[in-house]
Structure formats: structure tokens, C-alpha cells
Amino acid sequence: MVSAYKLWDWPTRLFHWSLVVIIALSWWTAKEGHMDWHERLAYTLLVLLLTRVLWGFVGSHASRFSSFLRGPRTVLAYLKGQVGPGAGHNPLGGWSVMLLLAMLFLQIVSGLFNSDDILFDGPLYHLASSEWQDRMGQVHVIAFDVLLVMIAVHILAVFYHQWRHKQPLIQAMLRGSARAREGLEPTRPGWWAIVIALLVAAALWGLLALVPAPVSYW
Fold first, then answer.
1. Cα separation of 179 and 150, whole Å?
2. What proportions of the chain, in percent to the nearest 5, are helix, strand and coil?
3. Going by C-beta distance under 8 Å and a sequence separation of 6 or more, which residues neighbour residue 118?
4. d(CA 1, CA 195)
5. CA distances (Å), 191 to each of 8, 16, 62, 183, 196, in order?
6. 145: in domain
7. Which of 57, 168, 198, 212 has the CA that lies 20 to 30 A from 94?
8. Which pLDDT band, with edges at 50, 70 and 90, does 46 fall under?
9. Res 161 pLDDT > 70
10. How far is CA 9 from the centre of its chain?
11. Domain that holds residue 56
12. What is the largest CA-CA distance in the chain?
């Protein structure tokens, strides 16, 4: 019997849709030169990413990495149509999520060493050699282009499954519920994620406070 079950907890859904907003605003602030806001968005994104990684170990069933990361054989069987998608991420989609997270981390790390050569320097820019600064600047630009391609593929895949296979993926990520033949584990209390995010933000603030200030030559 197919029934409606709670699939995505609200922290996971909030993380997902926050990415949409933050990535769009990050592009716009960089384009328009609002680097102070660009930096704030980057820190916010870093807190969200680290929180999501931790939530991938202690969060609700569908949000845990162990629930959607499968080995090569399972992924290959899925591509051959021998394994169904199931609730949550399918075997291929699970790894695409990890690639997206990795690319976002690369974007942020490279941004820490980046500079616009005018008014803005990343918090670690002055600690790096000129060669490393140039390299990270190139990585920051290229990684964003790759990220846009990955996002486009992700959106196309969602629409494909939404209309071709009649899987209400968008509705599930909006409402949190989905239809499944088997019951899913109860979702974790959302306040767990809030506590994790606050601890991550405090740790990040503390680490950045330890970074030596750049030497002033004025």
C-alpha cells in the first residue's frame, strides 16, 4: 500500500532552498561589486554546508549520507533499470549531491584566498603566496562555471523525474512529505540542526579571529 510519509525534515528543506537564494545573491553581489555582502553570504553558506555535512550523520533518515550513498554496483544497476529509485535520493542522485557539496566547498575555500585587487581581500589572502593567490583566483572563477553546469544538470534531472516518471520531487522538497510503500523513520527534531548551526558559526568565528591581521604598509 502506498501512503504519504514524512520524508525531508525542515532543516534539509531549508538548506536546499537557502542554497538557491544564496548562490543567486552571491553571483549578483560579485557582479555588482558588493563584496561586503558577497563575503557575508559566503560565511553564511559555509555555516550551512558544514551544518549539512554534520546533519548527514545525525539527521533524519533521508538526510543521512548512509541512506543514499551506494556503491558502484548499485549505481550501475540503477542505470540499467534493475534498481528502483525508492524514497529520497536515487543511487545516482546521491552522488550528484555529494559532488555539488564538494564544488560548493571548493568555491568557498578558493574565495578565502581571493581578492578583487581593489577593496576586497579574502580573510586568508594575505597569508598565501602570489602564486597561490593567482591559482585560487582562477579556481574561484572556473569552479563557479562548473557549479552552474552542475546546477543546470540537477534541475533538468529533477524535471525529468518529475514529469517522465511522475515522481513529485519538487513537492516533496517543498512540503517534506512523499508517497512510499514502506514507512520511513521519524524525522529528527529540528532544534538539533539549530544547535549544530550555532556551534558551527561560533567555531568558524573563533577560527577566523585567530587569523593574523594583514601587515599594513601605510
1. 27
2. 70, 5, 30
3. none
4. 37
5. 15, 17, 17, 23, 9
6. yes
7. 198
8. very high
9. yes
10. 16
11. 3-209
12. 73
Read off the pTM: 0.88
Segment 156-184 shows an average pLDDT of 77
Q: How far is CA 11 from CA 18, 74, 78, 187, 191, in A?
A: 10, 28, 28, 10, 9
Specify the amino acid at residue 175.
Answer: R
> Is 150 inside any structural domain?
yes
**In which residue are the cell numbers 510519509 written?**
5
Which grid coordinates are listed for 204?
Answer: 568558524
Rounded to 5 degrees, what are φ and ψ at 77?
-65, -35
Domain containing 176 — which CATH number? 1.20.950.20
Burial of 72: CB neighbours in 10 Å, binned 0-12, 13-18, 19+: exposed
- Which one, of 106, 124, 90, 89, lies nearest residue 45 by Cα? 106
- State the cell numbers at 198: 550555532
In terms of Cα–Cα distance, which of 49, 29, 45 is closest to 37? Answer: 29
How many domains, in total, are found in the chain?
Answer: 1
